[in-house]
Design brief:
The structure holds 2 protein chains of 2 kinds. Chain A is mostly helical. Chain A has one domain. In chain A, 78% of the residues lie in helices and 0% in strands. In chain A, α1 packs parallel to α7 and α2 packs parallel to α6. Chain A is globular, with a radius of gyration of 20 Å. The C terminus of chain A is likely disordered. By secondary structure, chain B is mainly beta. Chain B has one domain: Immunoglobulin-like, CATH 2.60.40. Chain B has 1 helix and 9 strands. In chain B, the strands form 2 sheets. Chain B has a 5-stranded mixed sheet, with no helix packed on it. Chain B has a 4-stranded mixed sheet with strand order 2-1-4-7, with helices on one face. Chain B is globular. The N and C termini of chain B lie far apart (38 Å). The chains are: A mainly alpha, B mainly beta. At the A-B interface, α1, α3, α4, α6 and α8 of A face β6 and β7 of B.
């Protein structure tokens, strides 16, 4: 039961951290709870479907279907996260400054919620499909202690969710005027980490050169499989032995989204006529 | 009893595995939540093909954080994983769904 708990916990943890950060990052955006919940539910349904077709996906596209599928959904999540922080850079300060005045703008701008909903869906889909497959394996093995294992799985799910919720409330403790700055950075690092993971899948599919298998090796200090290693893996994309291509994608994502935040996101605020421009952009 | 049969099957699998050390392409079998062989020797600085075959009724995930691979192997299915070129050294791989089940890639 403990082994079961640990495995499910590890899978759920990743999705829970993503959802926790995204929940904090969208604080004050109307109806964001619905969008995020819808994303998670869609992700969970998708997880069952993906798990059902796991064999077919793996053998698709000359055997690299699974790698391409993972790379595609990770890169989609990176784009969605990027779009969200750039949008949040534009509107986050306004939300922080005056929650009621900009209600209308936020509503019109809540298109960003599609993106955020999709990110949650993808996180749940990726980790959820593994949980489903794993549970299926337990069921297939059948017989003794099945119920016991299922209880372990349920506890793992709760424990993973608890960490996500703890992160959410931890972030909420940050004063509102700093909150969106902090969550933007968290999401930027989250996105860079996903891009690096996606690059590893593309290299595995032979579509990208790996540019060196381990640029450094810190597995003796902090292993990828330790709890801390895994937390950092989700939060900042930590890898004990990164391939060169992963570092390239990590850096490029930081650069592109970071530049987007500066040039597109902050214009209204920085030019000091934020209210006017924001008003004009949403007549 | 199950342990005995797993051992029995494993024994004959070892006998039956073709020796293909030269080109480095290797087939790894998952049976009774164990990798067989659990130590795979491949040459350094070239790309080799690993075929992972899952003979169990449960899905497995062939994973390695050392050489960045992560691939689900359906029950009764097989996958192909290209690894390398790798520097000489030892690289761990494991079954993410049965974490106690692990093996090593020895690159020389």
């Amino acid at each position: 039961m403990l082994a079961m708990l640990v495995i499910v916990f590890r899978e759920v943890l990743e999705a829970a951290l993503v959802v926790g950060i995204v929940m904090a990052a969208t604080r004050g955006v109307p109806r964001r709870g619905w969008w995020i919940a819808a994303g998670c539910v869609a992700g969970a349904m998708g997880a069952v479907i993906v798990a059902g077709f796991a064999g077919a996906i793996a053998s698709a596209l000359e055997g690299v279907g699974q790698e391409l599928f993972n790379a595609a959904i990770l890169m989609t999540a990176v784009c969605m996260l990027g779009w969200h922080i750039i949008w949040m850079g534009r509107h986050g300060r306004e939300i922080a400054a005056d929650a009621t005045r900009i209600g209308r703008e936020v509503l019109s701008g809540s298109r960003s919620l599609y993106a955020i909903s999709a990110v949650c869906g993808i996180a749940v889909l990726r980790e959820g499909s593994e949980v489903v497959l794993f549970l299926y394996g337990i069921a297939a093995a059948g017989g003794t202690g099945g119920a016991d294992l299922m209880i372990g799985g349920a506890l793992g799910l709760l424990a993973g969710a608890a960490v996500g919720i703890a992160l959410y409330y931890g972030l909420l403790a940050i004063p509102l005027r700093h909150l969106f700055g902090v969550t933007s950075w968290l999401i930027l690092l989250l996105a860079a980490g996903m891009a690096s993971q996606g690059a590893a899948f593309l290299a595995a599919a032979n579509l990208l050169p790996s540019l060196g298998n381990s640029i450094w090796n810190t597995s003796q200090i902090l292993s990828d499989r330790s709890l801390m290693g895994q937390l950092l893996h989700v939060l900042i994309g930590y890898t004990a032995r990164p391939a060169g291509i992963q570092l390239v994608f990590y850096g490029a994502t930081l650069l592109v989204i970071g530049l987007g935040m500066r040039t597109l996101g902050r214009d209204p605020v920085r030019s000091g006529i934020g209210r006017t421009t924001a008003g004009q952009s949403t007549p | 009893m199950a342990g005995f049969w797993a051992f029995f099957a494993a024994f004959f699998l070892v006998l039956g595995l073709p020796a293909r050390a030269e080109d480095g392409d290797t087939t790894i079998t998952i049976k009774g939540d164990k990798f067989l062989p659990d130590e795979v020797r491949i040459p350094a600085d070239r790309k080799v093909k690993l075929t992972v075959r899952n003979l169990d009724a449960a899905p497995s995930e062939f994973e390695s954080s050392d050489f960045h691979r992560e691939k689900i192997v359906a029950p009764g299915g097989e996958i192909t994983v290209f690894v390398g070129p790798l520097d000489a050294g030892t690289y761990e791989f494991f079954d993410d769904f049965h974490p106690e089940d692990r093996g090593h890639l020895v690159v020389k």
